[in-house]
Design goal:
Blueprint (H helix, E strand, L loop, with lengths): L3 E2 L2 H21 L5 E7 L3 H17 L2 E2 L2 E3 L5 H13 L5 E4 L9 H7 L11 H9 L7 H12 L8 E5 L6 H9 L6 E5 L6 H5 L4 E4 L17 E4 L3 E4 L7 E4 L4 H4 L5 E2 L7 H17 L3
Parallel strand pairs: 1-12, 2-3, 2-4, 2-5, 6-7, 6-8, 8-9, 9-12
Antiparallel strand pairs: 10-11
Helix pairs in contact: 1-10, 2-10, 6-7, 6-10
Amino acid sequence: MSAQIIDGKAIAAEVRGEVAAKVAELKSKGITPCLAVILIGENPASVSYVTGKRKALAEVGMEDRSLTLPESTSEEELLKIIAELNADKSVHGILVQLPLPRHINEDKVIMAIAPEKDVDGFHPVNVGNMMIGRPGFLPCTPHGIIVLLEKMGIETSGKHAVVIGRSNIVGKPVSILLARKETNCTVTICHTGTKNMAEITRQADILVVASGHPHTLKGDMVKQGAVVIDVGVNRIPDASKKSGFRLIGDADFDDLQDVASFITPVPGGVGPMTIAMLIANTLQSASGEF
């Protein structure tokens, strides 16, 4: 029996529809949710991500206060712009697209964004709030994964979830969210220092793969009927494509088709949810409802 595909595009569209209805409500009260996305330089992947974010803003009726700055922008100039946006009460969310040019310190930039406008959920205040279950912005990709599981009606309580990867952006936060009482999983984290990884992954009911390497998870590493959430986005050469490459995940999709019960495709799985949750966080900021 073939795995059921989790359609992230459709679920993200549903989330955006819910957000658009609430944005219309807020606008009728004189509040227009506003997001400022700052892009520095012309990294093709970053340009593509920002284009997707701006498209989503327009779709849900939010104000787009985005800025595109040259690669040569200094750290001081960027921090000054962030300070101005922090002080501007009409701006509800600030997002600086990562990665940044080498001469700019990412940590300094993340710390400079006011926690109440940090709709990416990267500021230590928001990370700490998530950790102890206080209200705050949840990081978009991990939160999107939880919403995918909820919307697909996948039972999580009492299940064993294995997360491959320990990044600050996905691995660590999704582990925390999976272990929260609302989700109620027992969580194991695997990483480059894990020995006998396949022994651990074969115990999982739910697998989240965020290793950053194609085909990290193969069919023989997964028990029959497990749920596979693939966070990876890897470009591999493909002469048959106009772009010269195609995107694949961190899981071997073809190898897992007859093993997993549910699986996210790449592209079209977790990716669209990241933008949908960013828009939801911006709405949350504008409405003040946590």
